[in-house]
Specification:
Elements (H helix, E strand, L loop, with lengths): L4 H10 L26 H7 L7 E6 L14 H10 L4 E3 L5 E3 L2 E8 L2 E6 L13 H12 L14 E8 L2 E6 L6 H4 L10 H12 L6 H5 L7 E7 L3 E6 L12 E6 L3 H10 L4 E3 L6 H5 L4 E6 L3 E7 L9 H10 L2 H7 L5 E3 L22 H10 L6 E7 L3 H15 L3 E7 L2 H9 L5 E7 L5 H9 L16 H12 L3 H18 L2 E7 L1 E6 L2 E2 L2 E2 L5 E2 L4 E2 L2
Helix pairs in contact: 10-12, 15-16, 16-17
GO molecular function: peptide transmembrane transporter activity
Membrane topology: Lipid-anchor
GO cellular component, one term: periplasmic space
Length: about 550
């Protein structure tokens, strides 16, 4: 994963033209992520270079929103959860589904999947992992009283049958081929049944869903929860009783450091071992430091500007198209991200199943933008707000868009919100425009499109543009229910054409993710979904 200074600079310049999407992320995306244990044999061999033990400190931009896998759908939360919990399956660096708490699976018929479960696995509280636990976890996500933002991942499941202690069957409403990949998602992480029961008891006493799990997250993972000081840090400790080879570190701290330059300073002083993320503008400074390197990974992520289609004037497709055509995205990609990433034509990254390289986009065309604004009766412009969280790149992108739209007499007020409040208020539709990201963590277009644009998923689940289009809904439903891959591809191509007409977003780019990493850290990798792979990390003492 480590690149030399010279190699990295060459790679950054090369990415102005193209990028190979092979691994993962740079700032808080809204999309959730897969289980973290997709380590390769090569990673395990590399990790032997350092010694075991020690405490790894990760300086991260944003705090977790929730440590309950059913309680949030954002990357900062998933990055912590993925070390505490495990799912039935996991994905490797090539986005291929691999065994985890399930050892094998097969499709019994078009709508029935059977999974064989790993035996002898214990939760951190000493309770057993078995098929009853799996049933309880998935049923909890499906429970409307819980109100999980990750419901869309499993809402097609109609029946869960415990065949025996270590065999479980899922019957779906329709053929759903991506189910094994969906079960790799962190939303399908397994929580101790005892803690689930405690959480339900608390709900009966008036507590919020997930309150017990959030304060006492108990999984089967290679790290255990130690403590959480909200807004400051989360500390995990090694699970000595882990069912597989245990983690090599004694503990990991996710330390909230909101300022990018402060994260860089922490690298330099040794107060932190990893800066997650690293701004493209700070690459040169970090590369000049002794004992620190920069790592770069491609992704299946999208950065975008969303429009609240329930608010004027964004309820008019001509306005949404006009803003797409008014923005020169190269100013953002080259000027703010230093060319690191791939320009986005639509919501899907090239490595995602369903991506269509021939899909139309809304290209930069300022004259056409003016004509569309005139058609909408807004030739004299209007005033609006553009929200972002406190990621420096997102703030810079927002101010760039503000400046570009000023040329069209559109007065934009940029507002920066704290991460948790940002997610909550955009889910409630309090915004006009907003800057955010989404990671298609399953590698399948269903996750990259259904969550973002289906009317069933308005709010927390992902549809923060409040897209409600009956024709689009019908296409999305048909595509997820179609078992034939070629027909699914055709449907997703049609959906990408439809999205050009609806124009719910300004798609910016599929970002590459940069980390600043101390040379003391060995064996660190990321998936194309952004999650740090920490099980086999070692730290030179």
């Amino acid at each position: 994963m480590k690149l030399s200074k010279k190699s990295l600079l060459l790679l950054v310049f090369g990415l102005l033209l193209s990028v190979v999407l092979v691994a993962c992320a740079s700032e808080p995306d809204e999309g959730g992520n897969t289980d973290s244990s997709g380590d390769s044999d090569a990673d395990s061999e590399e990790s032997t270079e350092g010694g075991e033990g020690g405490e790894l400190v990760i300086a991260t931009l944003s705090d977790a929103v929730s440590l309950d896998p059913a309680g949030s759908n954002d990357v900062p939360s998933s990055n912590v959860q993925a070390n505490i919990f495990e799912s039935l399956t996991k994905q490797d660096a090539n986005m291929e589904v691999q065994p985890s708490l399930a050892t094998e699976w097969e499709a019994i018929d078009d709508t029935t999947w059977e999974f064989k479960l790993r035996e002898g696995v214990k939760f951190h509280d000493g309770s057993d992992f078995n098929a009853e636990v799996v049933k309880a976890n998935i049923e909890r996500i499906l429970d409307p009283d819980v109100g999980s933002p990750r419901l869309f991942l499993y809402e097609m499941i109609e029946e869960i049958e415990v065949v025996d202690d270590y065999t479980i069957r899922f019957t779906t409403e329709f053929p759903f081929s991506p189910l094994p990949a969906h079960l790799a998602h962190n939303g399908g992480a397994m929580v101790s049944l005892d803690v689930i029961n405690e959480d339900y008891a608390a709900m009966e006493n008036g507590e919020d869903p997930g309150s017990v799990i959030n304060n006492n997250p108990v999984g089967t993972g290679f790290f255990k929860f130690d403590k959480w000081d909200p807004g400051s840090q989360i500390r995990l400790v090694k699970n000595e009783e882990y069912w597989d080879e245990p983690a090599k570190l004694d503990s990991v701290v996710f330390k909230v450091v909101t300022e990018g330059l402060t994260r860089v300073a922490e690298l330099q002083t040794g107060d932190s071992h990893i800066s997650d993320p690293l701004s493209p503008n700070d690459v040169e400074q970090v590369e000049a430091m002794d004992g620190v390197s920069v790592t770069q990974q491609g992704s299946v992520s999208l950065s975008y500007v969303g429009f609240n289609m329930e608010k004027e004037p964004f309820d008019d497709p001509n306005v949404r198209k006009a803003i797409n055509m008014a923005i020169d995205k190269s100013q953002i990609i080259d000027g703010i991200y230093n060319g690191v990433g791939t320009p986005a034509i639509g919501p899907l990254a090239p490595d995602v199943f369903g991506y269509d390289e021939n899909a139309p986009g809304l290209e930069y065309d300022p004259e056409q933008a003016k004509e569309l604004l005139a058609e909408a009766g807004l030739e004299d412009g209007f005033s609006t707000t553009l929200w972002t969280n406190d990621s420096q790149e997102r703030v810079d992108a927002a101010t760039n868009i503000q400046a570009q739209l000023k040329e069209f007499n559109i007065d934009v007020d940029v507002q920066v919100l704290e991460w948790g409040a940002y997610l909550e208020q955009t889910a409630q539709g309090e915004h006009d425009m907003f800057v955010l990201g989404w990671s298609t963590v399953t590698g399948d277009a269903d996750y990259g499109l259904y969550a973002l644009f289906h009317s069933n998923n308005v709010g927390d689940a992902g549809n923060r543009t409040f897209t409600k289009d009956e024709e689009l809904d019908a296409l999305l439903d048909e595509a997820r229910q179609e078992p034939d891959p070629e027909t699914r591809q055709q449907l997703y191509s049609e959906i990408q054409v439809k999205l050009t007409e609806v124009a719910p977003m300004l798609y910016i780019h599929h970002q590459d993710f940069l980390l600043g990493v101390s040379d003391k850290v060995q064996g660190l990798t990321q998936l194309p979904t952004q999650i740090l792979q920490l099980k086999d990390v070692t730290l030179e003492q």
